[in-house]
Amino acid sequence: MEAIILAGGMGTRLRTCVEDLPKPLAPVGGRPFLEYLLDYLYANGVHRAIISTGYMAEKIEDAVGRRYRGMCVDYCREDMPLGTGGAIKKALGMCKEDYAVVINGDTFYDVDLFEMQKAHEKGGCPVTMAAKLLKNVERSGYLETANGRLTGFCEKGATGEGLINGGIYFIDKNALDCINDEKFSFEKRVLEMILLPVNIFESEAYFIDIGIPEEFARANSEKDLLISKRKRRAVFLDRDGTLNKDTGHLYRIEDFEFLPDADKAFAAIKKKGYLAIVITNQAGIAKNLYKPEDADALHGYIDSALCKEHSVIADGYYYCPHHPEAVLDEYRTVCNCRKPEPGLILQAVSDFAASGIEIDLQNSFTVGNRRSDLLAGINAGTKYNVLIGSDEPDAAEIASAHYESLFGFSNLEQVL
Predict the structure, then answer these.
(1) Are residues 192 and 330 both part of a single domain?
(2) pLDDT digit string, tens, across residues 341-385
(3) Nearest CA among 281, 126, 288, 106 for reference residue 198
(4) Cis peptide upstream of residue 340 (ω within 30 degrees of 0)
(5) Is 260 in contact with 407 (CB distance < 8 Å)?
(6) Which of 110, 238, 303, 373 is an active site residue?
(7) 180 shares a domain with 303
(8) Is the domain of 216 the same as that of 244?
(9) What CATH number corresponds to the domain at position 362?
(10) Which of 194, 228, 262 is the last residue of a domain?
(11) What Cα–Cα distance (Å) separates residue 96 from each residue in 2, 38, 48, 190?
(12) What is the pLDDT of residues 39-77, one digit of tens each?
C-alpha cells in the first residue's frame, strides 16, 4: 500500500502555538505530530509514503529522511501552492500502484486501512472517503449520502448528528487526470461538486484535527490515543541461502547477490501487507571474521537495493552474533537467539508489540533453507514453516511446505 501525506500547508491558525515549524512537525507529547501519522500508516500496512511538502519543506525532509521504520519515504515538493487537489494529483503521478491512500498532515483518524482498502476495491468508485459520525456537526458541516455514496455537502452551521469528512481517502492513480488545472481544491472541485463517484467508508475510530490551538492542546493531553494498534501477519525470513546467495560468512557488500527473483518475492510479500523480518545467524561475528557494524552496513545496502528497485525495505533485521565455540569471549555462549532457538523471532514480536503492532504468530510464516530455520519458527510458534530450496531431507520432514525458491513461495494466498 502506498500513501500520500498532505504536509504542505502554512498552518496559519496554529502560529500562536508553533512559530518556527511547519504544522506537521508541531510537537505532541514530545514528538512531531508527523511521526504519529507515519506510525499509523506503517501499522496499517503502508510500505511507501510520499510526503507532499511546500511550506518549510526542508525541515520536514530533514526530520524524516528517506526511510521510516519499514517504509520507504519519498517527497513531492510544491514549488508554488497547488491546493489540496493539485498536491494530490502531483503526488499520484509518483505512485506505482493502482491507488493510494491520502491523509492530511494535521489530522489523526485511526481508520483501519486494511478494511478501508477492501471497501475501495469492492466499491467500484475512483474515490473512497472515510467518514466520521459526530453528535454535533455545527462546526464542520456534514455529508449527504445515499446507498453508501456521497450525494452532497451541507455547510457549517447546521446542528445535530451527522457524518463528516474524516480526511482520509483511497484514490485511484489516474482519477484526477480529468482535471487539467494544476492548482485546485480537492474538497471543492472534486467532493463538493461530486465530479467523481465517491464511496463512503464509515469508521467510529478516534479522530482529532490539530489545526486549531484548542485541538492541538487536546492532542497533547490525549497523546496515548495517537498510537494505532493493529494485529499483523509476518514472514520471518532467513537471509543466506534463502534471500541471497550463501558465500559463507557473507559480510562484504560487493559479495552480496540476491538469489534469482528473490528481491521480487520480498517486494511481493511486503505489498501483500505482511511484515517481512530477516532472521539470521551471524557466527562470523563470534569468529572475529567481521564486526556487527559490517552486518549492519550490509543490511543497509540490502534495504537500499530493495527501495531503489521495488520501493520496499525490510521491517527489521535480527541476527545472532553468538557461537558456543566463539573466538571472542564476549560471544562464546549457548544462547536463546541462535537458530534453532526462537529468541530472534520472540525478540521481534516483543519489539513490535511495544510500538502497537501485535504479530499474529498463528498466521505467520518462518521461511528458510535449513532445518534450524524451521525449528526456530516451530519453537517460536509460527504456524507455517516453509523450506526453500534445501537438500536437507530432515528439514523437508518438518516443513509445512517446500518450494524451490523464495519467488515460488511468495504467492502467500496460495500457500495459505
Answers:
(1) no
(2) 999 999 999 999 999 999 999 999 999 999 999 999 999 999 999
(3) 126
(4) yes
(5) yes
(6) 238
(7) no
(8) no
(9) 3.40.50.1000
(10) 228
(11) 8, 19, 10, 23
(12) 999 999 999 999 999 988 999 999 999 999 999 999 999
- If asked whether residues 206 and 267 sit together in one domain, one would say no
Annotated catalytic residue, options 106, 110, 172, 240: 240
User: Is 238 noted as a catalytic residue in this protein?
Assistant: yes
Amino acid at 152: G
Q: Which helix (DSSP H) or strand (DSSP E) does residue 299 occupy?
A: helix 292-310
Give yes or no: residues 69 and 88 share one domain.
yes
Based on the fold, state whether residues 200 and 299 are members of the same structural domain.
no
For the question of residue 255 being annotated catalytic, the response is no
Cα distance between residue 235 and residue 229, in whole Å: 19
**How many C-alpha atoms does 118 have within 13 Å on its Cβ side?**
6
Q: How many domains does the chain have?
A: 2
Same structural domain for residues 326 and 206? no
What are the Cα distances from residue 412, in Å, to 45, 319, 364, 391? 16, 25, 10, 23
Q: Of 202, 228, 254, at which residue does a domain stop?
A: 228
Q: Which is it for the CA torsion 52, 58, 63, 67, positive or negative? A: positive
**17: domain range?**
2-228
Q: Alpha-carbon distance 298 to 280, whole Å?
A: 13
User: In DSSP terms, which residues pair with 319 in a beta bridge?
Assistant: 280
Regarding whether 94 and 44 lie in a shared domain, the answer is: yes
Confirm if 267 and 303 have CB atoms less than 8 A apart: no
Hey, what's the cell of 88?
494530490
Contact 216, 197 (CB under 8 A): no
Q: What is the CA radius of gyration of the chain?
A: 24
- Among 277, 284, 290, 353, residue whose Cα is nearest residue 318: 277
Question: What does the pLDDT read at residue 213?
Answer: 81
Under 8 Å CB-to-CB from 399, ≥6 apart: which residues?
374, 385, 386, 387
- The amino acid sitting at 26 is A
- The answer to whether the Cα torsion of 239, 240, 242, 243 is positive or negative is positive
